[in-house]
Please model this.
Amino acid sequence: MKLEKLTPAHVKQAVAIYMEHAWPGGAKGASLTTVKNVEAEDSLRGLRSVFETGSSGTAARGHRYCLRLGNERYPWMKFVLQEYLVDGEFFFSIDTHDDLRIDPATPDYDSWCDLQRYNRGLKKRIEEQWAAAQLPTHGDLRAICEGLERLGSDRERATAHHGKRVLVVDDDEDVACGEAAVLRAIGYQVETAYDGRQVLDRMAQDPLPDLVVLDFGMPEFDGEEVMRRLRADSRTASVPLLLATASEIDLATIQRASGVLRKPYPRSVLCGMIERLLTDAASS
Model:
């Protein structure tokens, strides 16, 4: 949804749906205070003062506004309004904010995995309810990107790497398919995967993709574990890995990646980074 069409009523409706699912017994503590602050504002300017601002909307990264509303089992989950892939288009989404790495040997590991599954299910239910209420979600993002592909509006961006194979990985299927449409529109052959296990299964087959756009926070195996395994295998060690994340990541993780994209990013930055990495790979 274009920012000029987004109203405080849209935001308040999206927050109300979130709270209904995340806090069925009623919000408590900081979450309740945040909701009251949202309800008290009657302009987008006022609402922006309540949100955490994730970026300044530079050419390298879209605008991202967050509210840490949590849920009854986990206080860190976030309500997100962000500009993603398509300039000027904003979408509601959930950031489960639970990509903390836990050693499988720790006593709480199974409980942590159960919480992650709960958070993913809650995210799915909330986003489906938003879509049913005709609020802008990543389903709309996917539709816009696929529409641009059909219209051929990005054909002028085609590069010397036309026909190269790209594997796009994101645990949000709509985001993965939206990115795939963007890349197909400029001539890449694109496959998609939605969790770390699917990535590893695909990378065990020939022909290998020429580049992988890899989400950091995923079920099964996260992006860090996928990178570790691919870099440890001589067959896949040299495949460029473009890591996409909204999380803070450590230096060791960054060094395994060929490049890093900070979510949310415009499609021009995605395409430019892929072109650069493929050029570097061809010349090495």
